[in-house]
Each structure stands twice: as structure tokens, then as C-alpha cells.
Design goal:
- The protein is built from one helix and twelve strands.
- The chain has 187 residues and is mainly beta.
- The strands form four sheets. A five-stranded mixed beta sheet has the order 5-12-11-8-9, with no helix packed on it. The protein has a three-stranded antiparallel beta sheet with strand order 4-6-10, with no helix packed on it. A two-stranded antiparallel ribbon has the order 1-2.
- The protein is rod-shaped, with a radius of gyration of 35 Å.
């Protein structure tokens, strides 16, 4: 055949014999279909970056869309997040529909301060599942120190530097006892 047959179509053919003097009948028609297989390749993991430190308890995950060929349907990404690279203990698993060029989503659960997490992703359509991406790790920022927003009396004693400290003075020891909360009383 001089031209390539188009994919996604069914073709029918039949044959008969001729010897120059005689012609036989056509055989029963046969059919074949040309199809292009669907291939979904490995997605790229863009963020969180490898070995980065993340500050948000629900970090954003960004995936470089998977290369693909063939008559692919709507692509969805499956993301797994775990506390080890074996993914035996998953912290979260969720899916997100593909968006043009790259796909972004936010963790559906709060992650723990100071912990290392591992994640990977794979793409799939209604009939084909692509391979898992490589695994990437990131660490959550350590837990921040407590923030005191109430008055000075709510802060720990060591942080009350703006108040006079008289405990070392024997004549004012009685005033310290009268204050009740351990703060000195100035007269």
C-alpha cells in the first residue's frame, strides 16, 4: 500500500484467485483495526522541591504534566504522601484533574511540624494507568515558639523583662509576697 492507514479505524478486505484464464469467487470478508496505543509517561514533581523545607501545614504540590501519546482521555493525577519512601504508612492519598501545562493541588490534611514526608504521583485516564514518578522528600518546618498576645501577666516570668525585679533586695521581699503572682510591686 502506498499510504499509511489511519489509526482508530476498522478496515475490511477480501481476496480471490486468478490464474489468467480462470477467476475464483471472493473469500468471506475479514476485518482488522488499526489503533494507536495509549501511553502515559512519568509526571514531573515540581514542588515541594527535593529536600526543601516547607512552612505551610497544608503545602501546595505542583506536578509537571505527563507526556502522553495516543487517544488519551481526561487525565487525573493520583498523589500519595507518606512518612517513609516505602509508602507503607500513608499520610494522605488524593486525586486531582489535570490542568494545562502543570497541575497544582494542596494537601487535603494538615502535616506535622518537623517531620519528613515523601511523595510521588502517577497519571491515569479512564483506560490506562501511567507509571509512578520518582519519589521526592521534603521536611516540614519545626514548630514555632508560642506567641503571647495577652497582657504581661500571661507571659512566662523570664519574658517579663520590662518590670522591675526586686527579689534580690531583702527590704522589698515583703512587697514581693504581697504581689501574689511573683511580680514586684513598686510604690
Amino acid at each position: 500500500m502506498p499510504d499509511t492507514l489511519a489509526t482508530g479505524r476498522t478496515y475490511y478486505w477480501r481476496a480471490r484467485a486468478q490464474d489468467g484464464a480462470n477467476t475464483g469467487p471472493y473469500a468471506t470478508p475479514a476485518a482488522f483495526t488499526i489503533f494507536t496505543p495509549i501511553v502515559i509517561d512519568v509526571p514531573g514533581l515540581s514542588a515541594p522541591a527535593p529536600n526543601s523545607t516547607v512552612v505551610n501545614l497544608r503545602p501546595a504540590f505542583t506536578i509537571a504534566n505527563s507526556p502522553r501519546s495516543g487517544p488519551v482521555g481526561a487525565i487525573t493525577y493520583l498523589i500519595e504522601l507518606a512518612d517513609s519512601d516505602s509508602f507503607a504508612n500513608k499520610a494522605a492519598t488524593w486525586s486531582v484533574l489535570e490542568t494545562p501545562n502543570q497541575t497544582a493541588t494542596v494537601s487535603p490534611v494538615d502535616l506535622s511540624y518537623g517531620k519528613v514526608y515523601y511523595w510521588h504521583a502517577r497519571a491515569y485516564d479512564p483506560s490506562t494507568i501511567g507509571p509512578w514518578s520518582y519519589t521526592q522528600a521534603f521536611q516540614m518546618l519545626g514548630e514555632p515558639p508560642p506567641v503571647y498576645t495577652a497582657g504581661r501577666a500571661d507571659r512566662p516570668r523570664a519574658e517579663r523583662r520590662d518590670q522591675p525585679q526586686y527579689r534580690h533586695h531583702p527590704q522589698l521581699a515583703e512587697r514581693d509576697e504581697l504581689a501574689g503572682d511573683g511580680d514586684a510591686v513598686a510604690s
